[in-house]
Specification:
Number of strands: 17
Oligomer: single chain
Number of domains: 2
Order of helices and strands: EEHEHEHEHHEEEHHHEEEEEEHEEE
Strand content: 35-45%
CATH class of the largest domain: Mainly Beta
Structural class: alpha+beta
CATH topology of the largest domain: Tumour Suppressor Smad4
Number of helices: 9
Distance between the termini: 15 Å
Largest sheet: 15 strands, mixed
Helix content: 25-40%
């Protein structure tokens, strides 16, 4: 991760696309108008709306290819992921505003939870050229900002996505309920089916797993205001951290739950035979005994027989809010 050069000076207006997902849980018309007004006072700002899968990526890609300097996303993690995929590898800068139920990546890079406060922080970051070039994970022709989850993790996301209205209004409680239901009634807890093989920078194995998560950043998610840490070494400046859960026996599952909901919000104290991790992975393949679900940045993408993942350095120009440490 390196500091990127700025395309503008302190008093120079730039071209900005405000990309809005109006169906995101925290997005309202009033908020969108106020954000647009704030951006327009300092920069040449257009607004585009997205409400279907893949649309945000096309809009962001079009903006980048026609000379837009920054894409500011008001939406959830799925919209932000699509925008990142649209502009990765270009000079266009990505900025995140919280508009979803969790906003994992926006919060990870220090964006305030309030969208209007976040807008001020993003404007200050753009004016101060507080921009980095970040590394991203990559698989199945798609980049990911914070993680790719395989196995039980993705099966829970798939269950949640069956109820988009409940997801919008319930948020975290729905994920917890879906997790309990999937674990107890819809998932084979007796036979681990996943194996992960890291080939770069050195050869390492995680076998006999029920869950594999390739993390590009930490925390993994947030439960309310509390971060859940599973891969503290994962940052935008180094390779992926790969975490494998190797047991779903009741005692082990309870130990993981206690660790996640405990004061640390971390898996660091869980028996290493139950949770294992490999850090700074540049290339990885994950295979299953049978097809397994996978998700990217909270977006369920269906079952696959195998996934090949890699970490791509310095591929995304990213505005870091001035309030971040």
């Amino acid at each position: 991760m390196a500091l990127a050069g700025s395309l503008w000076g302190e008093t120079c207006a730039v071209r900005v696309l405000l990309l809005v997902n109006d169906s995101a849980s925290s997005t309202t018309a009033r908020t969108r108008v106020l954000i647009h007004t704030a951006l327009s006072e300092r920069h040449d700002t257009e607004v585009a709306f997205t409400n279907r899968r893949g649309h945000a990526a096309r809009l962001a890609r079009g903006a980048a290819t026609t000379g837009t300097d920054a894409v500011v996303v008001l939406g959830g993690d799925g919209t932000l992921n699509e925008a990142a995929n649209g502009i990765a590898g270009t000079d266009c800068v990505l900025a995140a505003l919280p508009g979803g139920s969790t906003n994992v990546f926006a919060r990870t890079i220090g964006t305030p939870d309030d969208p209007l406060d976040a807008t001020s922080a993003v404007l200050d970051a753009l004016d101060a050229a507080n921009i980095i070039t970040a590394g991203l994970g990559y698989t199945c022709w798609r980049y990911f900002l914070f993680h790719c989850g395989m196995g039980l993790d993705a099966a829970i996301v798939e269950r949640v996505e069956r109820h988009p209205t409940l997801k919008r209004y319930m948020g975290h409680p729905l994920f917890l309920l879906a997790g309990i239901h999937t674990l107890l009634r819809r998932y084979d807890r007796s036979t681990p089916t996943l194996a992960a093989h890291a080939t770069s920078p050195m050869s390492s194995e995680l076998d006999g797993c029920f869950v594999v998560v390739a993390a590009n950043t930490d925390p993994y998610t947030f439960l309310g205001s509390r971060p859940v840490h599973i891969a503290p070494a994962a940052t935008l400046a180094n390779g992926l951290s790969v975490v494998g859960l190797r047991s779903l026996r009741l005692a082990d599952a309870l130990a993981v739950i206690r660790a996640v909901f405990g004061a640390k919000g971390s898996l660091s104290d869980v028996d290493p035979s139950v949770v294992q991790r490999i850090d700074d992975v540049r290339e990885l393949s994950v295979t299953g005994v049978h097809p397994f679900d996978h998700q990217i940045d909270g977006d369920h993408l269906g079952p696959v027989d195998e996934l090949r993942l890699e970490w791509v350095p310095d591929v995304l120009r990213l505005a870091i809010p001035a309030v971040a440490d």
